[in-house]
Input
Amino acid sequence: MSLGGVDLNLLVVMDAVMRERNVLRAGQSIGLSPSAVSHALARLRALLQDDLFVRTSLGMQPTSRALDVAPLVRDALASAELALGYHEFDPQTSDRQFNIAATDYMTAVVVPGFLRVLAEEAPSVTLSIVPATRIDLTAQIDVGRIDAALGPFTEVPRRLHAQLLFEEPDVLIVASDHPLAGSNITIENLSALPIFAVAAGSVEDGHLTERGLSRQKEMFNRAAMIEAFNRIGTRPILKIVQPHFLALPAILAGTTAVGIVPAALGELFRQSGVASVSRLPWEGGKTPVQMVWHERGGRDPAQMWLRAKLIHAAALAQQPFIGA
Output
């Protein structure tokens, strides 16, 4: 196939549909009518001999062929934009929308500081947050729908880059009126109490891997906890909540149950009066939290600005816990 016989605008259409998963919104994003987008999709399907997108109740879902091709199309368009100079970024005047993936925990801890930066430095920039627990997270990064993802990533494929944001210990939380509120909770105390922890999903080996990107299913160190209970001849009464940290105070309210959360989130719960915090009665270590992005965004000024501000917001969120 010769590129001379291919309308390269079709790639722009494919990229827009992959990003929006909706013909109307895709057209609006690139200045085309829905019928023009549909016509372009028909030409693409004939060109690539694949359906590419299937209309479902959840929108235009890509086929396997589309998922394979889409990152290459996004790379090509990003290179063209860079070559033509479409990469200037002035935060004071930009109306760009950034899309990040984060758990509810990361949203509560890091995003408020980032939003304050937006208000001061980039008043017209908007932020969209999608759940980092979604199964197609890596595909979303590959096709450019996600600018950065925040989470406990353990393996990162070469096409992606990663930056360590912080390493955070866990703490115990109980309801503010719990009999043990305000005291140091011991392993003996815990032996008779339900313990609630958060997991991203039911994955046997403790990791969720998709297209080369692995993330921890659980933010807490299950092995260290079980070892601590083994030393006193018992096992924890462990309950797993999927996948919402922010639901724990409501779950614990009015009960004698205990929760395990990252320290920064425990401090937010303590400050808001919805929980009391105690150190772990075992050495649980610290969970590394990283920011991940696609290599094509490495030189994009807007994404460089985004990453710098997220790193700053993460550092501010951790200040009370240095040395914890």
Q: What stands out?
A: The first strand starts at residue 53 and ends at 56. The two ends are 60 Å apart (CA to CA). The mean pLDDT is 87. DSSP finds twelve helices and 14 strands in the chain.
